[in-house]
Amino acid sequence: MAGTSFSRIPGADGAHPTFCRLCEAQCGLIADVEGGRIVKVRPDRDHPVSEGHLCVKGPGMAAITHDPDRVTTPLRRVGGAGMFEPVGWDEALDDIADRLKAIIARHGGAAIGLYQGNPAFLSALHIAYSSTFLRSLGGSKLFSVLHNDGPGKTAAMGLVYDNPADKTFPDLERCDFLLILGGNPLVSHMSFVAEPRVLHRLDRIHAKGGVVVVDPRRTETARKYEHVPIRPSGDAWLLGAMLHHIFEQGLEDRAWLDRHGVGWQGLRDAVEAMTPERAESECDVPADRIRALAVRMAKARTAAAYGRLGTNRGRYPSLTNVFTEALNIVTGRFGEAGGWVIGKKPFARQGAPRPAFQPHGAARSRIGDLPMMLGYTPGGLVGKEITTPGQGQMRALFVTAGNPVNSYPNGAETAAALEQLDLLVALDFYVTETTRHAHYILPTPTFYERPDFTETWVANAPRPWVQFTQAVIEPVGEARAEFDIYNAVLSRLGKAALFAEDGPLGASPSLIDVIDTSLRKGTYGDDFGARPDGLSVARLIEEFPSGVRPTPSVDPAHSWTRVLTPDGKPRLCHPVVRTEIDRLLQSSGEDKRGILRLFGRRRLSSMNSWMHNVEKLVRSDRPTLQMHPRDAADRLIGDGQHVELRSASGAIRVTVELTDAVTRGAVSYPHGWGNAGGWRFAASLEGENINQLASSEPEDWEQVSAAVHLDGIEVTVTPIEAVADAVGG
Ligand SMILES: Nc1nc2c(c(=O)[nH]1)N[C@H]1C(S)=C(S)[C@@H](COP(=O)(O)OP(=O)(O)OC[C@H]3O[C@@H](n4cnc5c(=O)[nH]c(N)nc54)[C@H](O)[C@@H]3O)O[C@H]1N2
Ligand SMILES: Nc1nc2c(c(=O)[nH]1)N[C@H]1C(S)=C(S)[C@@H](COP(=O)(O)OP(=O)(O)OC[C@H]3O[C@@H](n4cnc5c(=O)[nH]c(N)nc54)[C@H](O)[C@@H]3O)O[C@H]1N2
Ligand code: SF4
Ligand SMILES: [Mo]
Q: Are residues 211 and 226 in the same domain?
């Protein structure tokens, strides 16, 4: 750090060390400020883990911060959707509090809901304090991205370890062989793993033993390493057959399983019928290739099998994710260096105590009778919770950093339902497909305008680090931190401030106070002097402005302390697993010729639904329907043609891009488009909301995890002229 002088006062001219909060990588950044504005964003070469890495989106967020289309004053609805006028903070908050009082008096707190969007999971304590806010109002309807992002993983963590709140991940540092299913780390930067230099890590693993990417598209990652094309939703077959082969050949790590007393015979029997030949006809991966993958996974010195988004929203997300855990466990990789681990959370406060996931337990959704996970109501039910009468019908909703109209199935239904609410409050800095339906939009800072700490994802870092940042600039306009907004509402309702019960924080703590206490009492903290080497916010600001690695690498042995089953052993064959295998076997042998399945894709320069308003980022990122040339030829479709893409749930019109990168029988279109709201540039772009083709009927979702079915939807593709002819004739 010698020679570099950093500004610490928000908005002061000069270089401010900070970090990006768009994805788990949380790259270190240096933001240059002049006259209260961010004029440049550079990589932070002193960051102990990102070491100068960043992608276009980190600097792109500076353009969003200063986007003229941004909401910078509270807005009140004055007419139809999207019609707002500016209003003062006090007036807005007073009216919100009055309406809440009336709703609680009439319907009880149970009528209040809150939706936590993706950016809330990259904002220190946001999940904890917004959940606490809802509970203080007596509300219980908590929604989040859980059911479109990680439902299968969460269910599997519950079924295998009784610990749905943690997430296993690969120890990339010491790994020799990595199997990736349904993840594209070269674009996403590896979700549920915090490793900004993931490309370098994968290159090293590739050189040592191999990186194999199972995906229906030859993705950026698959292109660089080894690609195994698969039929969408085929992964449970692939993994089941790998397990079958491992048991048949006695390749399971018997010594490891005996040493840890892990029972595996039940799983062996359960996958008996899943032969590689049978799997080949169900997932299109050749039987010999399945056997070879199983042998590599079993015999590599160190190895891990990692599944991500593409394994979470197909037909069998829970089973697929349980099989992934099982593959790691029977090959002796769980809790081992270079294998499959659970890391330490830095904070003592881990949010509200979370109920365990019980697939047959009492906590079930009012609509659809689906199991609740981690206290969350299935996220696909936001609309139906509003429109379905009865005890607990939702009358008020807070949306904190989310866009459920775009990110969950059937946005048209959700949008219409939002209009029926007595109160919709959105904490956001854009008028979006969701917030345009709000009674009030309360403007919040972007990450450059708030203090923060690397709270959540550091637990999933192969090389753990922590960093605290001050706000780089003062909040733009009248933007106000979410924590302060929630406290302002609570105080108007005569309720205690968030976390005030924590005593030493005092009656109205600041977010930095709460972060400091949580850090000091946590894994790496100084425990208020009891551990003099430990960390505090003051120390991070003074000594480690670019972050610090408090420990050289993730501690594999810690993983075992997070196995919360009664006997402390992973459970490989929960009764639900058998039921799901039966369901899978029953679906086999169906004639699937001629069927097209739709799945999604991400691009480096965009982020879900809300980064399309900056021209520089969107330039090379227009949405197209990728289709295999032979599938297109069968339908007399050419490159660049406009087509109707239709599912049982809806239809949209899109432009075709022919490419053999997608496997035959599958087509790919990115999510997050069809932008409507206050975005002048984004709204002018071609593109449709792919989730209009996904079903919002709970019986169409996976019943174990309530995962919405977003990938592998059966579709037809028809040239627009043919559609017009059919209608005309
Ligand atoms: N078909 C399909 N659908 C998908 C996916 C897919 O792969 N395919 N991916 C899914 C996944 S993984 C996810 S995580 C979800 C995302 O689902 P959501 O979180 O519901 O939607 P986002 O598009 O991320 O919208 C985030 C919103 O937060 C706002 N925002 C950004 N930063 C902040 C902040 O710091 N504070 C506040 N208050 N607001 C902020 C943005 O303006 C935006 O309106 O989408 C899901 N939907
Ligand atoms: N640039 C960029 N980075 C991001 C995001 C972004 O929008 N843009 N979003 C962030 C968020 S919210 C998340 S959750 C992460 C997600 O991070 P990843 O999980 O890496 O996400 P995707 O790139 O969507 O990769 C999912 C892959 O699954 C494949 N797939 C679809 N169906 C199947 C299937 O049935 N089987 C298999 N094996 N594969 C399938 C798709 O082709 C795709 O390549 O990325 C984060 N990082
Ligand atoms: S990879 Fe890009 S989006 Fe992710 S944290 Fe780094 S700069 Fe931000
Ligand atoms: Mo996500």
A: yes
Type and span of the H or E element at 169: strand 169-170
Q: Does residue 121 sit in the same domain as residue 200?
A: no
Q: Same structural domain for residues 605 and 674?
A: yes
Ligand 1 centroid–CA 256 distance in Å is 41
Q: Is 119 in the pocket of ligand 1 (CB under 6 A)?
A: yes
Say yes or no: CB of residue 678 within 6 Å of ligand 2. Answer: no
Q: Give the distance (Å) from ligand 3 centre to CA of residue 422.
A: 38
- Same domain, residue pair 657 and 719: yes
- Tokens representing 16 are 């401010």
- Mapped onto helix, strand or coil, the DSSP state of residue 627 is strand
Q: Which of 22, 42, 44, 617 to mutate to test the pocket of ligand 3 (most atoms within 8 A of CB)?
A: 22
CB atoms within 10 A of CB 724: 11
Q: Within a domain: residue 133? A: yes
Residues in the chain predicted with pLDDT less than 50, given as ranges, are 1-4, 350-353, 729
- Nearest residue (by CA) to ligand 3, atom 2, is 55
Q: What is the pLDDT of residues 566-624, one digit of tens each?
A: 999 999 999 999 999 999 999 988 777 789 999 999 999 999 999 999 998 888 778 99
User: Biggest alpha carbon distance in the chain?
Assistant: 82
Report the separation in Å between the CA atom of 172 and the middle of ligand 3, taken as the mean of its atom positions.
18
Our answer on whether the CB atom of 559 is closer than 6 Å to any ligand 2 atom is no
pLDDT value of residue 443: 98
Task: Confirm or reject: Cβ of 191 under 6 Å from ligand 2.
Answer: yes
pLDDT in tens, 91-114: 999 999 999 999 999 999 999 999
Instruction: State whether 332 and 214 are in the same domain.
Output: yes
Query: From the alpha carbon of 187, which atom of ligand 2 is closest?
Result: 1
Q: Clarify whether residues 112 and 204 are in a common domain.
A: no
pLDDT of residue 355: 55
Q: What string of DSSP letters covers 221-232?
A: HHHHSEEE---T
Q: Residue 501: its pLDDT value, please?
A: 72
Q: Is residue 685 part of a domain?
A: yes
Which CATH number characterizes residue 178's domain? 3.40.228.10
Residue nearest to atom 4 of ligand 3 (CA): 23
Residue 55 domain-assigned?
A: no
Domain interval for residue 599: 592-728
Residue 9 phi, psi dihedral angles, 5° rounding: -90, 125
Residue ranges of alpha helices (H) inside 47-184 are 57-65, 89-107, 126-136, 146-149, 151-161
Residues 156, 139 within the same domain: no
Residue 432 lies in a domain: yes
